[in-house]
Amino acid sequence: MRFALTLLLAASLGACVTVRPEEKEFLADPSMTFGAEGETQAAEEHVLTNREGSFGAGGVSGGGCGCN
Amino acid sequence: MNARLTLLVLALAGAASAGAQVGVSTVTTYYREQGGPLENQVVTPSVRIRGDIRDVVQLRAGWEADVVSGASVAVVDNPGLSPDVITSATRYDDFRNVATGGFTLRSEFASLSADYSYGNESDYRSHGFRLGAATELFERNTRFEISYGRGFDQVCNLAQPRAQEAVDRQRLPNSDGCFGGAPERETLDVDIHTFQGGWTQAWTPIFVTQLTFTGQVLNGYQGNPYRAVWLGRSAAQEFHPENRQRWAGGLGARVYVRPLKGTLQLFGRLYRDSWDVTSVAAEVAWEQTLLESLRVRVRGRYYTQSAAAFFSDDYSRFPRGQYFTGDRELSSMGSWVVGGSVRYALPPPVEERTLEELSFVLKFDHLRYDFRDYTYAGAAVPNHTGLALTFGLDAQF
After folding, report:
1. B86 to chain A nearest CA, in Å?
2. 3-state class (DSSP) for residue B240
3. Closest alpha carbon within chain A to B367
């Protein structure tokens, strides 16, 4: 509960941020976009997830393991 | 299932004829682990097609496969196979198909998406769906995403009495008869629930962060049915707990360095699960725009994890409770990845053309694993380096 409240409070900080649309030239660069690597990043996660004992927080989901 | 995917492909074709934007992408990854008789390789080709109608609806369908060949040690730590247990590795080949389909509905500041996937291999099947929602707030400087995925997986195993003691269970020798009703085979369920959340925040014109969280609950058979572990007097099929809860939190940051026209990318992840595996991953990358259409990225990644509570490298002398495993990914291990990628996008045409955008990507990764307490009856893991090559192509019509 405390964690959720802290997260909610932190997320509300976004309301204080004022990056105006005309200031987003660099933010619009593909290298600044999370997940812009798309399917090649998913392929990389597929390689790593099958060879490590952990998973997640990388934006990838799917079923089947293909590891045996 | 095939009929539903055919309908989706027909819908995409219809979208194309209705003047929608259609994109096609293909990515192929080749992975190879070198090291004596235990080398193995995986080729993963994939094709995806998507159609966007007036920025309101996106339909997508895809196919992916894993073509696996290599060798593995069937009975981990078996002293009876000495002097060299590794040269007794058994060869295996496997082929996995995954078909996917889904859609996204978008409004000005929010989107809803749904995806379905069906995976099939000789000894494993999976049905999975995922529902997701995303919204943008505060002049689009803040983005929240949540999703829930549900997997209905099935594993083939050697039919054995359920009341049989784990130490007497035998490993699955091959996949013959799996899912075909053969009396010597049984099908075991694996239920998977995956929750994900993400918060992306632009803080300044050159600084953006992303916080991600994943929780997963698995219930069912989670071992490798082909693998057995030497327990002292005999070997038995590896025996894992049927329940596992996993949590991971990640924080990424990207900073655009104006004088260099490049981006510094940082990522860290903490992970913990109910099997007592704890891990930390850290990644640093630099992405440089060389020409307007050419981008180069170099990166390094370090990963380390603790062993599962029931892992032992020698169950005959150091048993760890009722469970036993021969899985090296449940041992205390680490890995290094060093790699890079090159992306090239053809400049957009001046006049209106059928092909609006075409881009290529070539990636290379060198992986090195460090198995701190995992051996094959005292022999170190020989296949501790890997190579991953990826080639991708994306076209927008």
Report:
1. 17
2. coil
3. A48
b/e for B85-97, b at 16 or more Cβ within 10 A?
bbebbeebebebe
Question: How is residue B329 written in tokens?
Answer: 């990914």
Which member of B29, B203, B330 has the closest CB to residue A53?
A: B330
Nearest CA in chain A to B175: A68
The partner residue sitting opposite B141, judged by closest CB among A19, A52, A68, is: A19
Residues in chain A closer than 8 A to B335 (CB atoms): 51-52
Q: For B144, which residue in chain A has the nearest alpha carbon?
A: A11
The C-alpha atoms of residue A52 and residue A41 are separated, in whole angstroms, by 16
Tens-level pLDDT at each residue, chain B (397 residues): 556 656 666 665 665 556 678 999 999 999 999 777 788 899 999 999 999 988 899 999 999 999 999 888 877 876 665 556 666 677 888 899 999 999 999 998 899 999 999 999 999 999 999 999 999 888 888 999 999 999 999 999 999 987 889 999 999 999 999 999 899 999 999 999 999 999 999 999 999 999 999 999 999 999 999 999 999 888 999 999 999 999 999 999 999 999 999 999 999 999 999 999 999 999 999 999 988 789 999 999 999 999 999 999 999 999 999 999 999 999 999 999 999 999 999 877 766 667 888 999 999 999 999 999 998 888 888 888 999 999 999 998 8
Cis peptide bond upstream of B83, omega within 30: yes
